[in-house]
Amino acid sequence: MLKLRVLTAAILLALLLAVLFALPPAVWAALIVAMVMQGAVEWSRLSGLSGGKANIYWGLTLLFMLGLLWADAGTTEAQQVYIHLAVYVVSALLWLIIVPTWLMAGWKVRQPLLMALTGWAVLVPTGLAMLDLRAANPQPWILLFMMGLVWMADIAAYFAGRRFGKNKLAPSISPGKTWEGVAGALLGVSVYVALVWSFSPYFAHREVLPILLLASWWWVGLAVIGDLFESAIKRQAGVKDSGALLPGHGGLLDRIDALTSTLPLAAMAMLLQKLG
């Protein structure tokens, strides 16, 4: 299974790099819309939506994404910033307040409408953030840096947890996750950030290493929350994986769970800096 996971991850990384650096923004936007739609398909299953209700959910998700793209084409840059910030504020409220409360209280949400709304708050800001971060300067390195940070945390947590894991992080939600895995993730992203800071001209000429390290540790916390939340939703739905799209990995949501809780807040920070 590990070999299959590594092979799938390598193929996905090669495809991502090709799309990021070789294809125009319009193609990237189309792929992001497709990604959000796939996420909506998987989320609808986890939410218990089927038949006509699922079709309506997918259609509305598509309208949301196309509406955001249409708004970008018909508004000024300043207006775009405020529209996007409004989307990211919803994401921030979800991940900083609602989801931690949800997990600590052990809520079991059975209402399909509430689950559908939660799915939009998870998926739409993530798709928008992938568009905004790719368009940032120096493009598309900011997006790749943020995604790489989350991947490094995931990889380091996996191997540290397998080798040293004894103390369960949240046994009622995800029995396989341990505090030792979290410690491994913190160490892994620290090394990752230090290497990027050392070799990237974008960071190397700025005295920002301590700030980057602190931010990366906070990002690990957000990634853990995103991972645990998706695990809680899958446990509630009684399934092991969100889907079977990716061999060895499960569904799309199984691969982007930590990105959904980190990328929107990174994009929001970038836009707030632009306003400042």
Notable characteristics:
276 residues; mainly alpha; 11 helices; 2 strands; 3% strand
DSSP strand tally: 2
Q: What is the domain tally?
A: 1
Structural class: mainly alpha
The ordered H/E elements are: HHHHHHEEHHHHH
How much helix is in the residues? Answer: over 70%
Shape summary: globular
Measured by DSSP, the beta-strand proportion falls in: under 5%
What's the arrangement of secondary structure elements?
Elements: H1 2-22, H2 25-47, H3 51-74, H4 77-105, H5 112-135, H6 141-164, E1 168-170, E2 174-178, H7 179-199, H8 201-204, H9 209-237, H10 252-260, H11 263-275
Antiparallel strand pairs: 1-2
Helix pairs in contact: 2-3, 2-5, 3-5, 4-5, 4-9, 4-11, 5-11, 6-7, 6-9, 7-9, 9-10
Describe the structure.
- The chain has one domain (2-275).
- It is 80% helix and 3% strand.
- The chain contains 11 helices and 2 strands; from the N terminus they run H-H-H-H-H-H-E-E-H-H-H-H-H.
- The chain has helices at residues 2-22, 25-47, 51-74, 77-105, 112-135, 141-164, 179-199, 201-204, 209-237, 252-260, 263-275; strands at residues 168-170, 174-178.
- It has a two-stranded antiparallel ribbon.
- Helix 2 packs antiparallel against helix 5 and helix 6 (141-164) runs antiparallel to helix 7.
- The radius of gyration is 18 Å and the shape is globular.
